[in-house]
Design goal:
There is one protein chain. The chain folds into two domains: 134 residues, no CATH class; 91 residues, no CATH class. Helix 7 packs across helix 9 and helix 11 runs antiparallel to helix 14. It is globular and about 45 Å long. It is 56% helix and 4% strand. Strands 1-3-2 form a three-stranded mixed sheet. It is mostly helical. The chain is built from 14 helices and three strands. Bound molecules: zinc ion.
């Protein structure tokens, strides 16, 4: 996700509009992925809270990294209850870019996007890993620096948001809807931004899978084979993108 967002202290933040946003977002995450998050604290922070550590200029509308709880330990402060997955939501960007009546649905969609990244890892947080203070300080500098650049070179537009990520994100979308929380599928995954088919086409390809696997943890879902229609759509999207790339390359070389 990459839109420009200059911090402006005079602009209202999500926290200003909804002081209970982090609590509601946390409750949603536990509702849709409770089995995967059992026993773990979950830290949902706002860009306006972390700007002193990560820098005020930020081109992302949200982000998560494997050790982000340690990178932002000083901001978490008294809320710290041990290691747990962590995400940052760019409240300044969302309030700048969207009408007030859309802010909630956009913010919750971004929360589920970041949650899908957390669930797409081998485990939500690696409790066996004990990075040194120097390592964490270095990582913090890298994350802050990356967030300051609008575009970063990626091997493909969908890098990091591939088939397994799409599957998790759209199961989360389905579970959130059952809990009465609306989210926007194309903000969660797939679509033109990633040079992929619209997220609704992936929803169609899943058929009844999200309902059938409602009670199954994501760690288990990710190990099971997805529906054939989903695999076919994904492979078709990838080959269409690669075909497009090779035609562009031929045009440049000819
Ligand atoms: Zn992402």
């Amino acid at each position: 996700m990459s839109r420009v967002s200059e911090h402006n202290a005079s602009v209202a933040t999500v926290g200003d509009l909804w002081p209970d946003f982090a609590a509601r977002a946390t409750a949603l995450c536990r509702t849709v992925a409770g089995r995967d998050l059992t026993g773990l604290p979950l830290y949902i922070l706002l860009h306006s809270e972390v700007a002193d550590v990560m820098g005020r200029e930020n081109f992302s509308d949200g982000y998560t990294t494997p050790n982000l709880d340690l990178n932002l330990r000083s901001v978490i402060g008294d809320r710290w209850h041990g290691r747990g997955p962590c995400m940052v939501l760019n409240d300044v960007f969302i309030v700048d870019e969207y009408f007030p009546e859309d802010v909630d649905i956009v913010a919750m969609s971004i929360v589920l996007h970041e949650l899908a990244h957390i669930l797409d890892r081998p485990m939500p947080v690696d409790l066996q890993s004990l990075p040194s203070d120097d390592r964490i300080e270095f990582e913090t500098m890298v994350i802050a620096n990356a967030a300051r650049h609008e575009s970063r070179p990626l091997p493909t537009p969908y890098f990091g948001h591939e088939d397994q990520f799409i599957r998790i994100a759209l199961h989360l979308h389905y579970r959130a809807a059952l809990a009465g929380v609306e989210t926007i599928p194309n903000l969660l995954c797939a679509g033109r931004r990633y040079c992929l088919s619209h997220a609704h086409r992936y929803i169609e390809a899943f058929g009844d899978e999200p309902a059938d696997l409602l009670e199954i943890p994501f760690a288990e879902i990710s190990r099971s084979p997805p529906p054939e229609a989903f695999i076919a759509l994904w492979l078709n999207d990838v080959s269409r993108y690669l075909e497009c790339c090779s035609q562009t390359l031929n045009g440049v070389l000819s």
